[in-house]
Design a protein that fits this description.
mainly alpha, Helix Hairpins, 3 strands, 79% helix
Length: 235
């Protein structure tokens, strides 16, 4: 009975360590998803920036095209105005004047279009700068989050290794058969191999315990397991 009580007490201490080990392992399991979320947020910001950057460049090109078109028409106006003094007939003169007037009218529209495009370019540049700043901040957050998660992972792995070494040393003090049984149960039940019974119900699975099982728990002469969840029961 004394040895059994000692073994149970050691297993109770080991289980406390195993509980921490399994919690740390669960933390490690979710680290990749946390990093993935941070990466996705950065990728979304990057894609948004790329879309706006492309729109900004297209607006610049459109403005440039209109400016080139305006320059060409203004060159034509100057050319035709230079020809006015050279025409020999009123008909040719009127024709050139009409062409010049038409070009100037077109140029007025082009100038308004260019001003509108310049406003669009300025607005897109302002928005692009804002999004670029957001992207840079998001990228810095990702780097920071990556470092944090790497440090958290490293710290958890070191703790797990230390706890495993400590619990393995303690387990050597337990009867080999009981230790083997505990190891099997704790693997299957993710860190909860022993449960303390206070009454006639298994706290882990809520199974009603037979009177004989309850009595065996009180005697503390043998390892008693729940007939339903197979966990070790103690008082």
């Amino acid at each position: 009975m004394i040895q059994m009580v000692q073994d149970l007490n050691i297993l109770i201490e080991i289980q406390k360590q195993d509980k921490v080990i399994y919690e740390l392992k669960e933390d490690l399991e979710i680290l990749p998803s946390e990093l993935e979320k941070a990466t996705e947020a950065t990728q979304e910001a990057r894609e948004k920036f790329q879309v706006l950057e492309q729109e900004f460049k297209q607006a610049q090109l459109k403005q440039k095209d209109k400016e080139v078109e305006l320059q060409a028409k203004e060159d034509h106006v100057r050319k035709y105005e230079g020809q006015l003094a050279q025409v020999k007939t009123n008909k040719e003169y009127r024709s050139l004047k009409e062409e010049i007037a038409s070009l100037k009218a077109d140029n007025s529209i082009l100038e308004e279009t260019i001003i509108d495009l310049m406003d669009q370019v300025d607005a897109k540049k302002k928005k692009l700068d804002e999004v670029k700043k957001d992207l840079e901040e998001q990228e810095e957050l990702l780097k920071q989050r990556t470092r944090e998660l790497e440090e958290k992972s490293k710290s958890a792995q070191i703790k797990i290794e230390t706890l495993n070494q400590e619990r393995d040393e303690k387990l050597k003090q337990v009867d080999p058969e009981i230790a083997s049984l505990y190891q099997k149960i704790v693997r299957n039940r993710r860190g909860l191999a022993l449960v303390r019974v206070d009454g006639d119900t298994c706290p882990a699975c809520q199974m009603q315990l037979r009177a004989q099982i309850v009595n065996e728990i009180k005697l503390k002469e043998n390892i008693v397991v729940c007939e339903n969840c197979s966990r070790i029961l103690y008082e």
